[in-house]
Amino acid sequence: MMVDDRYAGGRNQTAPTGRRARLLDRRSFLAGSAAGLGALGLGGCVTSDGVLLAEATKLYGPVPEEKFPIPAVDVSKVNPKYYRRTVRYESKEAPGTIVVDPGNFYVYRIEGDGNATRYGANVGRDGFLWNGDAYVGRKSEWATWTPPREMIKRQPETAKYARGMPGGLDNPLGARTLHLYRNGAYTLYTIYASSDPESIGSGITSGCVGLLSQDMIHLYSRTPVKTKVVVLPA
């Protein structure tokens, strides 16, 4: 909550003593209330991370215009620290570069001037983590998902999709996918759209990185092919 600075100057300086006192009392009350709410992390819809729940609900609302309409995210199932936001993030990487931080379950898009857009993510589970440089070799919307042979061996139930699972809300790749390449070859790793809010902030995948669908659409729209991707050690 912010106090209008116009109350501190201009014509209000000439206000009668009684009116000025009321204005000052109101300003003191508002400032005190804001400080109290900030300290408590409460106040109806203020989260512990200082993000308005109402704002998060708007960020992660339904996307009805999609080929397969995307429902709203139940933001109560996402730790507020994983909501999309702009943060200070010093990096030597060029603006537009994607940095994956699996140890902290974040994906950053470098914006320049020491800023980045930060997204909460799910990442590879133990034994499937990797790191190094890659780049976006191709992009796809509502991609067909084909499980790798190694996955079919580990999880025989996926064999029914050996010829591909069509795009849709139940497809593991979701609404948008960034396919990661190295030296001209597809790594089989992706940054994809997840429809499972409870997965954000956990290691559950076979090395891929998932963002909430609304976040992935946001990142995808700003990421051209050939964009550099840096995956940090966990």
Automatic annotation (TrEMBL):
SUPFAM superfamilies: L,D-transpeptidase catalytic domain-like. Signal peptide: none annotated. It comes from the Bacteria. Gene3D superfamilies: L,D-transpeptidase catalytic domain-like. Pathway: Cell wall biogenesis; peptidoglycan biosynthesis. Pfam families: YkuD (PF03734). CDD domains: YkuD_like. GO terms for molecular function: glycosyltransferase activity; peptidoglycan L,D-transpeptidase activity. Coiled coil: none annotated. One of its GO terms (biological process) is peptidoglycan-protein cross-linking. GO terms for cellular component: extracellular region. Keywords: Cell shape, Cell wall biogenesis/degradation, Glycosyltransferase, Hydrolase, Peptidoglycan synthesis, Transferase. Residues 96-232 form the L,D-TPase catalytic domain. Belongs to the YkuD family. This is L,D-transpeptidase. It comes from Methylobacterium oryzihabitans. The lineage of its organism: Bacteria, Pseudomonadati, Pseudomonadota, Alphaproteobacteria, Hyphomicrobiales.
